[in-house]
Amino acid sequence: MWLAAARRFFTLLGAIVAAIFLCAVSIGLILGTSLNRSIAVAFEAFGCLLLLFAFFVGNRGPARTKGDAHPFIGPRFLRWATPEEHQSTIAESAIFLVLGIILILIGLAIDSRYRLV
């Protein structure tokens, strides 16, 4: 179970790192900036975005909407979240948090302005 979970996590991490790298290189080439700097800023910015997602996903309240009513139009009926939904909220927040921290650390390691050792 743990091995399969680690494989899925590192597959997700690898896909995110590859997508960020390709976007950062293309944007850096279009803007004519240093590739080192654009890649580092992209990893740090996306890592901060994931930390923000972790905060908001983790702070969901205990109430959930009931039914398929549109959230802005018509009546909204609420229900209490099940224990599985609470666990899912905590797990999603933890994934966003860990991915965000890893991406920020990758960005700091790539950035030539800072020396980690």
If you had to describe this structure to a student in words, what would you say it looks like?
This protein is mainly α. It has one domain. It is built from 3 helices and 2 strands. It has a two-stranded antiparallel ribbon with strand order 1-2. Helix 1 crosses helix 2 (35-58) and helix 2 runs antiparallel to helix 3 (83-110). The chain is elongated and about 50 Å long. The two termini are 36 Å apart. The mean pLDDT is 89.
Provide a count of the helices.
3
Query: N-to-C terminal Cα separation, in Å?
Result: 36 Å
Q: How is the biggest beta sheet arranged?
A: 2 strands, antiparallel
Q: Which structural class do you get from the secondary structure elements? A: mainly alpha
- Number of separate domains: 1
The Cα radius of gyration reads 19 Å
Strand fraction equals 5-15%
Strand order of the largest sheet: 1-2
| Strand runs, count | 2
Overall mean pLDDT stands at: 89
Please state the overall shape, judged from the principal axes of the Cα atoms.
elongated
Low-pLDDT stretches:
none
Question: Could you estimate the helical fraction of the residues in percent?
Answer: over 70%
Order of helices and strands: HHEEH
